[in-house]
């Protein structure tokens, strides 16, 4: 390994400008020597469960933070998040009759792609944007916003602590209830971190040991770029976010690069098009894919395409927009003889007020009072239950 960047910036978008490449080299060497965070068998088990969801025999519920904070990697907070996920999944199963695959946006969701590389404060100061705790800190100072490679080691440690807590929870409940595994997924954004944690699997291949399920974001899904090539190189189940700008040709290329008909749960397409775009754009993609559409798991992300700015200048989302996208997603798939495989939500385990119930409420100039997110707005526990219950009723 050299002190130069491992990846060409033009081929790997949304990568930090690290403060020291020499320190980055040392950090990556340290990560390469560490044990895997998850084992390959669990990743293979998740692939099989996603395959069942793709066939309509189960449903994936993925919920959790937009951007995890290191400070939340303590047993009390992790258990609260896991309990919320499992309650939502139980409610979904009770209503729909479908088994639920339970996956958190957890134990690795420490990095976020951003629309702009900088942020201008009210006094005119220009700072690097907050990119997640694995890169920098949200406090509005230059020191906090500096991208420090040492934070990758903190990401590994906090992810490990979180996964240990989840495993202890699952094992502790196994003797008292039907065992329900908590899988962990995150966006595989920081490619040097992800690559440093690639390990051999039992079949002679390689898997990303940073999490059970890894997805590529809508901003980094270019088929000829490094994020997609990384996803193609590992045996984990992987997802790709598909937004309204994704052409049918691009989606087809991604399916052929990342899909595997021998393993139907290998590829999930996570659709995030917004309530206005979901039916026409998804219909266009499905028509172009034809029979290939049946070889992937179709998951709805009804959050990211419906982010707005409210009258107080805060980013927010409306539950009625979220539900409209879910309804359009389900109807478009059914029109093509396909089954919805899952739902990805950004949720808080505390009673925050970051999303509103109706779009009309977004016009209010009064700031939402309990706004705690480090990045995007999350559903409160009440709102999450409402969305899950209404989705279950659709199915």
From TrEMBL:
Cofactor note: Binds 1 divalent cation per subunit. The enzyme is active with manganese, cobalt or cadmium ions.
Enzyme class, spelled out: transferase
EC code: 2.5.1.54
GO terms, biological process: amino acid biosynthetic process; aromatic amino acid family biosynthetic process; chorismate biosynthetic process
Biological pathway: Metabolic intermediate biosynthesis; chorismate biosynthesis; chorismate from D-erythrose 4-phosphate and phosphoenolpyruvate: step 1/7
Cross-referenced Gene3D superfamilies: Aldolase class I
Residues the record lists as binding phosphoenolpyruvate: 105, 241, 272
Residues making up the signal peptide according to the UniProt record: none
Reactions the enzyme catalyzes: D-erythrose 4-phosphate + phosphoenolpyruvate + H2O = 7-phospho-2-dehydro-3-deoxy-D-arabino-heptonate + phosphate
Binding sites annotated in the UniProt record for Mn(2+): 66, 304, 346, 376
Assigned keywords, A-Z: Amino-acid biosynthesis, Aromatic amino acid biosynthesis, Cadmium, Cobalt, Manganese, Transferase
Family to which the UniProt record says this protein belongs: Belongs to the class-II DAHP synthase family.
Name of this chain's protein: Phospho-2-dehydro-3-deoxyheptonate aldolase
Organism expressing this protein natively: Streptomyces chartreusis NRRL 3882
Taxonomic path: Bacteria, Bacillati, Actinomycetota, Actinomycetes, Kitasatosporales
């Amino acid at each position: 390994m050299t002190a130069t960047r491992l990846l060409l910036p033009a081929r790997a978008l949304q990568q930090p400008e690290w403060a020291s490449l020499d320190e980055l080299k040392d950090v990556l060497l340290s990560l390469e020597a560490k044990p895997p965070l998850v084992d390959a068998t669990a990743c293979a088990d998740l692939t099989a469960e996603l395959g069942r969801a793709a066939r309509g025999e189960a449903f994936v519920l993925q919920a959790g933070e937009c951007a995890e904070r290191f400070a939340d990697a303590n047993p009390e907070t992790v258990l609260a998040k896991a309990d919320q996920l499992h309650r939502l999944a139980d409610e979904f199963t009770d209503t729909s009759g479908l088994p639920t695959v339970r996956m958190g946006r957890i134990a690795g969701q420490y990095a976020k792609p951003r629309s702009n590389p900088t942020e201008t404060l009210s006094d005119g100061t220009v700072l690097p944007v907050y990119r997640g705790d694995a890169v920098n800190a949200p406090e509005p100072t230059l020191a906090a916003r500096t991208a420090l490679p040492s934070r990758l080691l903190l990401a590994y440690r906090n992810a490990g602590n979180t996964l240990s807590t989840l495993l202890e929870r699952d094992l502790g409940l196994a003797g008292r209830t039907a065992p329900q595994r908590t899988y962990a997924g995150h966006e595989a954004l920081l490619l040097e971190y992800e690559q440093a944690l690639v390990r051999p699997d039992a079949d002679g291949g390689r898997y990303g040991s940073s999490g059970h399920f890894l997805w590529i974001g809508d901003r980094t899904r270019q088929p000829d770029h490094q994020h997609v090539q990384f996803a193609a190189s590992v045996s984990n189940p992987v997802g790709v976010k598909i937004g309204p700008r994704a052409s049918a040709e691009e989606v087809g290329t991604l399916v052929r690069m990342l899909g595997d008909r021998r393993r139907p749960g290998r590829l999930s397409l996570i659709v995030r098009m917004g309530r206005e775009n979901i039916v026409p754009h998804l219909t266009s993609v499905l028509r172009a894919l034809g029979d290939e559409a049946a070889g992937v798991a179709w998951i709805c992300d009804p959050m990211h395409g419906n982010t707005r700015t409210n009258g107080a200048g805060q980013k927010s989302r409306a539950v009625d927009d979220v539900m409209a996208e879910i309804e359009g997603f389900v109807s478009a798939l059914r029109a093509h003889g396909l089954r919805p495989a899952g739902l990805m939500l950004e949720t808080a385990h505390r009673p925050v007020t970051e999303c509103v119930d109706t779009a009309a409420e977004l016009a209010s100039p009064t700031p939402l009072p309990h706004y705690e997110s480090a990045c995007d707005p999350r559903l409160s526990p009440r709102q999450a239950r409402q969305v899950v219950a209404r989705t279950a009723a659709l199915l």
